[in-house]
Amino acid sequence: MNKVFTVSGFLATIVIIVLFNHITGFELHTFSLFFILPVGGLLIGAGASAGFFYGQIKYHKPIRGTQYLVGALLGLTAFFGVYYVSYLTTYITPDNEINYSFKGDHISNFEIDGELITFSKYLEISNQAKSQFYFRGRPIGEGIETGGIVNSIFFYLQLLASVLAGAGVGLIMVGDRKYCDKCKRYTEQKELLKFNVDQYDQVILELTKSINNPSALKKSIEKLALKEEKVIAFTQVELQYCPNCYESCLIIKIMKLNSKSEFEELKEFRQFLSLKEQVAKSLIDN
Asked: What are 138's strand-pairing partners?
């Protein structure tokens, strides 16, 4: 079944981006934010491999080096796939108008710089200076302004971004989940409590003391729970556990408001406390 998610996500990414380009006239796959961040490539890579990683997680298949390589290859292939589908759907009418409605002659019947426009030529002119289409010896349109060396740099930057996003989206989707090799499945997480960051040392001490006593641990959680609604920082305790063998631990995170008014973790302060099976079961059922 993972193949279904992989193929669906891969093809949907290409089709959606090409349709968006054709409908709006804006080439999303070449878009860079502030001329630096290659948004187009990131979208292609992330979309192309998201289905693959979703299937891996859904069917509890491990994600390791080989899987990240597959994600990178999906991003690479989808990047050229967007260009290829764009090439296949580019037509020119008798009035010399480029369209994507299959009206007129396909772009492969035209020449540029004395050569027929094959797919490789189409890629080439997408990354070079101003060029001119020719059809049966006649110039078509006003030519293509592509920006020479600068445009080539942007092209390869988008390509690299697509490859990296193809692999990187797997890391994002897996998040904090761990893979239980014994049970062949991913762990699950449950938020237990939030408490004031000023109580950090006290809370760690109390949790450590009651870590093997389910009733005492529950009382500690209830007693230490954060009462304030508006804070700029807090500490969060999560239970990470395998739903099959109940191998588990407490994850202690410090969360702080960032410049976007969103809470983000200060990962350098993360701590783990191992739990016994009966304690984990008690917290899961609670």
From this structure: 135
